[in-house]
Amino acid sequence: LHIYNHHIKTLCEKIWKVRDQRWKLDHVVIDYSFLQDMWMRKCTHGKNGCPEVFVDKVELHHHARKCSYRPKTKNYICIDCKIKFYYDDDLLRHKKKCPHKKKK
């Protein structure tokens, strides 16, 4: 399923058209931010200030590898499988499901 910005824009336009035809509420403001939250992915490096937002996961991946806000080094390493991460919360999320986790 691919959803692009023009799909969101088209949906918003349809909502406005129905609102104008049926409800006649010119002073009402409809907040569409929930649509963006459902389909938009923020850059991984948003933690460092990157404002970029993507619909397509592949585009996000390509951007994140070249992002100017990307940290210079990967400081967090999983001791079980040696995968490196830029951010500590990414490492913690990985550790919860790491397939190489040693059983105690």
**Element order, helices and strands?**
HHEEHEEH
Number of helices: 4
Mind telling me the C-alpha Rg? 20 Å
Mean pLDDT across every amino acid position: 78
Assess the beta-strand content as a share of residues.
5-15%
Query: Uncertain regions: pLDDT < 50 for 5+ in a row?
Result: none
Helix content class = 40-55%
What class would the helix/strand composition place it in?
mainly alpha
Described by the principal axes of the CA atoms, the overall outline is elongated
Q: Whole-Å distance between the termini? A: 42 Å
Largest sheet: 2 strands, antiparallel
Q: Count of DSSP E strands?
A: 4
Write out the strand line-up for the largest beta sheet, numbering strands in chain order: 1-2
Description:
The chain is mainly α and 104 residues long. It is 44% helix and 8% strand. The strands form 2 sheets. The protein has a two-stranded antiparallel ribbon. A two-stranded antiparallel sheet has the order 3-4. The model has no long low-confidence stretch (mean pLDDT 78).
